[in-house]
Amino acid sequence: MKSLGVIVEYNPFHNGHLFHLTESKRQTGAEVVIAVMSGQFLQRGEPALVSKWTRTKMALKNGIDIVVELPYAFATQKAELFASGSISILSGLKCDSVCFGSEQGKMEDFQKTISLMDNEKEKHDFLVQTFIGQGYSFPKASSLAFLKVTEDMNDILDLTKPNNILGYHYVKAIQEQESTMQPFTIERTGAGYHDPEFNDTPIASATSIRKHLFDNNGNIEKVQRFVPEKTYELLNHYLYKVGSFHQWEDYFTLLKYRILCSTPNELAEIYEVEEGLEHRVIHTMKESMNFHEFMTKLKTKRYTWTRLQRMCTHLLTNTRKENMLDVSSSKRSEYIRLLGMSRKGQQYLKQIKKDVEIPILSKVSGVDSNMLDMDIRATSTYAMKFNEPARSEWMQQEFSKPPIRYDEEKECFL
Amino acid sequence: MKSLGVIVEYNPFHNGHLFHLTESKRQTGAEVVIAVMSGQFLQRGEPALVSKWTRTKMALKNGIDIVVELPYAFATQKAELFASGSISILSGLKCDSVCFGSEQGKMEDFQKTISLMDNEKEKHDFLVQTFIGQGYSFPKASSLAFLKVTEDMNDILDLTKPNNILGYHYVKAIQEQESTMQPFTIERTGAGYHDPEFNDTPIASATSIRKHLFDNNGNIEKVQRFVPEKTYELLNHYLYKVGSFHQWEDYFTLLKYRILCSTPNELAEIYEVEEGLEHRVIHTMKESMNFHEFMTKLKTKRYTWTRLQRMCTHLLTNTRKENMLDVSSSKRSEYIRLLGMSRKGQQYLKQIKKDVEIPILSKVSGVDSNMLDMDIRATSTYAMKFNEPARSEWMQQEFSKPPIRYDEEKECFL
Fold this sequence. Notes:
Two copies of one chain form a homodimer.
Chain A: E1 3-8, H1 15-28, E2 32-38, H2 52-61, E3 66-70, H3 72-75, H4 79-92, E4 97-102, H5 107-119, H6 121-133, H7 138-149, H8 162-176, E5 182-187, H9 206-215, H10 229-242, H11 252-260, H12 264-268, H13 277-286, H14 291-298, H15 305-317, H16 321-330, E6 336-342, H17 343-352, E7 360-361, H18 370-383, H19 390-400, E8 404-407, E9 412-413
Parallel strand pairs in A: 1-2, 1-4, 2-3, 4-5, 6-7, 6-8
Antiparallel strand pairs in A: 3-6, 8-9
Helix pairs in contact in A: 2-10, 4-8, 5-8, 6-7, 18-19
């Protein structure tokens, strides 16, 4: 079976995702599609709107055949590690191709830019450090350095655009990992990545959808025209069961407790707490009544909002620098955790199983892995939003729940 | 001025405390009374019903002249350290005498028992280890060893009684610290220490009073006849302002978060988490929906409920073994933190100030002390019960609030 990989968050699965999926299948001629999906916490350092299990159902109902979890160790990282973790999993699952959305939309430009940057690496890195020295954040410094290196050139990626940056790192990871997967890209149309407002097309950014879900909590009709019917049903069901969608404010008390009941030295051991940020974090938290206020006060020119939010996620989940040592050096996932599959997905797995070199996990109990422990802690943390007994049931599920199985012909879960 | 020290929790201040205070003044002829009082967490490993500030007010309104805080490092310990910390503070404040309640009620018996135990120390310690080896808890093993050593003797303390045990350690600490304070004891009358039921006298145990406060939350009339009027007013006021009294269940979510989002190694660094208890703690917490269930499942013959509750307090406040190293060796407080004083108390302090060798703290900001950091973390943790903005205001108070001043003639706070 010809297989295609996609790298997703589906927070939530919307019409833009459906368009990308359909178009990817058409362009690559794939018969089976594998999604590697972030778990309970996302790349922007936020809790997912709904759990990874509900998002897995969204994916399966909308045409994905296999959903595997991108481990926390990669899902909450900047583009480079996020990309290499994802690629290692799709490549491990023997995907023939990988297809990603980008602002650029032309594959040649990615290849060309990577070659160029290989040649200009020294100059680029020097410029990045220079701009950081001038007080710019890492992403801004990278953008400026890139613009400087590539001025007067044509057909070069615009690496100030978020999806171009991710795509760049996907293609780079494929090269570095000597994967045989073929990369494809599709131009993103309609809403921009961070566009907070709705327009008159059926495509809206996930950011704008989330904004409307929170602004009109309990009344989600306004987003109906931007998501597939099956997403809408699942969102409604989650809201009915859980009461509200997950957001940072739900975890503010825990974050405050973590920060104010730790010593500065303990906080400095947490991943991404760098350069004395622990003192600023403690000081700011003392004066903050909610998460938004905390972030607003914490923000400086030196650090982006996203960078600080990721740090908060690591504080919340108690993820220490030592936990990430292996991740930063290997840049590859140690396992492939199966969240769900269709009948076709199951067939595909049977077919490739003997060639897969990374362990495929259906359940996590009894597995000894530092990387997996981070996923489990992430779920334990995510579940703290609930009251008992839902909370304990949830945590138990994380150990005992087998992958979701979907019968795509009967359109039902087994 | 002739001064008397008392060691208290006042959780809450009740008629039995008033009786003890009046009788102590009478016996010792003291003109000024100093109470060293546990802060937000108590010796049984529980959060105090109401904050240390409200309990300070109770003390001042009921005849105490100076209230100082027994640091967390001593307040949440077994009898020996609890006693030596308390004695070091009262002795540091130049008290002429110290008076404690006991089941025995005769000072000579304390002295005699201490001499005896000095002589029989080796035999006693050997027996304690033997009984622990047979699976008994430390307090039970100590009791059994003591009974064995003292069988066939007369006028010996009954060291199976909780207040006799504390008194024994007070007197022992006075000797060890070569303090000139003279110890007195008053026989405890009326309700037993742990008696959960009311009887027909105006004296009830603090345990029974707390039980009734929780059983009839929001309706505290039933305890009115067991507490002085001023306690009753302050309890009512606290309830009005805060909504409910503090209890372990209020902190269960935080405890669960602490336990399930830490590694076993991290938990093993917490004070009193010994002998692999970290695994039992994690395993038990996964299955527990509330604090009472957690404790009931955690309890074994080997560990008393109180011992395990103290461990939970240290887990909650993130108190590590390394934090307690100095405490266990020095057994003395590094500072004397003033919580409140009457006019007379203020006069007394003025008079003795130049002779006091331990720093007296009116405010805690800017003081660098590991022991004090534990008190601050205890207050930060204790305040997590509240919603914002009360929570943040509370935490700020801990740094900025000067001692409470009480005018005993006008019966008002200044």
